[in-house]
Every structure is written in C-alpha cells, then in structure tokens.
Write a structure and sequence with these properties.
Strand content: 15-25%
CATH superfamily of the largest domain: Response regulator
Order of helices and strands: EHEHEHEHEHHEEEEHHHEE
CATH topology of the largest domain: Rossmann fold
Radius of gyration: 18 Å
CATH architecture of the largest domain: 3-Layer(aba) Sandwich
Distance between the termini: 44 Å
Shape: globular
Helix content: 40-55%
Number of strands: 11
C-alpha cells in the first residue's frame, strides 16, 4: 500500500480525508503539528506528504523548508482559498502542487495520484527509459535523475516532469497548458502561476549557457522552450 503522511491541525477535515484515502487503499498516518510532521516526513516511510500551510507553532511553510533541506519527497500543500502568497512561497520552496481549502477528498486524492504517477511510474517503452541529452543537460527518466555539466541536480518530482517535457521537445516551445496537464497532472486555470514559479526554480538550478543566457527561453504567447545547442 502507498503510505501517505497528512499534517494538519484541523481534526474534522483530516479525519474525513483519512477515511476517504483508506477506502482508496492508501495507508495513512496523521499528525497534527509541524515538529512531528517534519520528523515523520524525514523518516523515509512515505511516498507523499500532504501539508497544511496554516498551523499553530511551526507553520506548514517552515515544515516544507525543513523537509526540503534533506528530502525531495513529493509534498502537496493545503492552502487557504485565494491566498496566493502562501501558494507561491510554497512552490518556490519546492512544493509539488497545492490544493485550496476547503477541498473535497476526491479532489485531493486525484491530485495525489497525479503526482505519484509521475514520480513512481516509468514507461515500459525503451524510448522513454533512455537518457535524454540536450547540451550539458542529461536526464535519466528510468531513475528520475538529472545532471548539468556532470553535476547532479536536486529536482522535485514536478520539476523533473517539467524539465523532461522540455527536453523531449528541445528547440520547440511547450505551452503552459501542456506543462500543467502533463507535468502537474491538472488543467491550467486562469491566473495560476504555478508553472511560472516551477520554471523559475528550474532555471536557478540549471547552469547558464556560455553566453550567459538561461537555457530555458520564454516564447511569447507560446510557452517555454529548452534551447537546443
């Protein structure tokens, strides 16, 4: 069974989510404070963590920050509806995605499954297992590992998904719509900046080209493009 960590102090909501996830055959552990959440997340027992931003004491943002110092496990954030600041900060710190509260158990489960599919399932086709090489970038989809100029890159699961899409289409722009649907596993909605924030994180982790430019270009009205040199 896939093991899920839920970190939230809302007892009613977390109880409802736990019941639903267990019916969907997930193994669920629930904790109600940030300190315990960090310790559990770093225990290497879980496939994914669902983390509430608003908690007393250690906030969800600080919990995510501490997790990301030591682990790239998938993390889905629960944010207050309409609170763009928390969403953007969470994404900048390496959250894989977010779900606004109040949310339904079905929606949360769908988002989790989308992240897990892209994290753990490798296509059987050898074409998709073979390393991708674009300039100094090397992606190994079978192991979900990435390198730049021979140095390992620490990418979150969504960052790897997005970079893989760009690498498979190197030299051609990929739309935000496709990046959201194939990288995040959900449709792009108006005013959603998630792809832009993830792209900013990826650019910071990648090296620059010899002329100092980023290897990822923004193509006006078309999306993003990995430069094929």
């Amino acid at each position: 069974m896939i093991k899920v960590l839920l970190v939230d102090d809302d007892l009613e909501l977390i109880g409802m989510l736990k019941d639903y996830l267990e019916k969907e055959e997930f193994a669920v552990t629930v904790v109600h404070d940030g300190e315990t959440g960090v310790a559990e997340a770093l225990s290497s027992q879980y496939a994914i963590a669902v983390l509430d931003v608003m908690m007393p004491g250690l906030s969800g943002v600080e919990v995510l920050r501490r997790i990301r110092k030591k682990s790239l496990m998938p993390v889905l954030m629960l944010t207050a509806k309409g609170d763009d600041i928390d969403r953007i900060v969470g994404l900048e710190l390496g959250a894989d995605d977010y779900v606004p509260k109040p949310c339904t158990p079905r929606e949360l489960t769908a988002r989790m499954r989308a992240i897990l599919r892209r994290t753990h399932i490798v296509a059987a086709d050898d074409t998709f297992q073979a390393p991708l090489v674009v300039g100094q970038l090397v992606l190994r989809p079978a192991q979900r590992r990435a390198e730049w100029a021979g140095q390992a890159l620490e990418l979150t699961s969504v960052e790897f998904n997005i970079l893989e899409l760009l690498a498979r289409n190197a030299g051609r722009p990929v739309s935000k719509k496709d990046l959201s649907e194939l990288g995040l596993g959900r449709p792009l909605v108006r005013f959603d900046r998630s792809i832009d924030v993830h792209m900013s994180n990826i650019r910071q982790k990648l090296g620059a080209l010899p002329d100092g430019r980023s290897c990822i270009e923004t193509v006006y009205r078309l999306g993003y493009q990995l430069i094929k040199d």
